[in-house]
Amino acid sequence: MQNTCLECNEKLIGRIDKKFCNDACRNTYNNRLNKDSRNLIRNVNNRLRKNYRILEDLNPNQKTKVSRSRLVEKGFDFNYLTTVYTTKAGKTYYFVYNQGYLPLEDDYFALVKREN
Questions:
Q1: What is the pLDDT of residues 44-67, one digit of tens each?
Q2: Where on the tree of life does the source sit, at the highest rank (predicted)?
Q3: Residue pair 97/52 in contact by the 8 Å Cβ criterion
Q4: Residue 5: CB partners within 8 Å, gap ≥ 6?
Q5: Which helix (H) or strand (E) is 111 found in, with range?
Q6: Dihedrals φ, ψ of 44, to 5°?
Q7: What is the pTM of this model?
Q8: Residue ranges making up the domain that contains 63
Q9: Bridge partners for 100 per DSSP
C-alpha cells in the first residue's frame, strides 16, 4: 500500500489512491519520467513546423514549381513529412500536414496545397 508521495516521499493525507502530495510533485515526477521521449517529440515537431513554413512560404498560390536547391537553401529537410499519398496514376506526393510536394524531372518539385 502506497502512503508516501512518489516524488518527495512525504506522508500522504487524503484519498487512499493518492500518489502525490501536490501538483508540483506530480509535475516534477512526470516531467522526469517523460524527459527523453519529450525531447525527441519536440525536435521532430520543430522540424515538421519548419518544413511546413518553408512550403507555405514558397507556395502562396497553392500550386507552384520550385527547384530542390531553393528548398535546401531555405533549410527544408526531406526526411520529415507527415503523409505519403500515391495517386491512381502512380504519382507519389509527400505532405507536411496539408502542404505537399511532388518530385518532377531535373530536381524540380511541384508544390501543392491539399484542401480539407
A1: 999 999 999 999 999 998 899 999
A2: Bacteria
A3: yes
A4: 11, 12, 19, 20, 21, 25
A5: strand 108-113
A6: -65, -45
A7: 0.70
A8: 37-113
A9: 95, 112
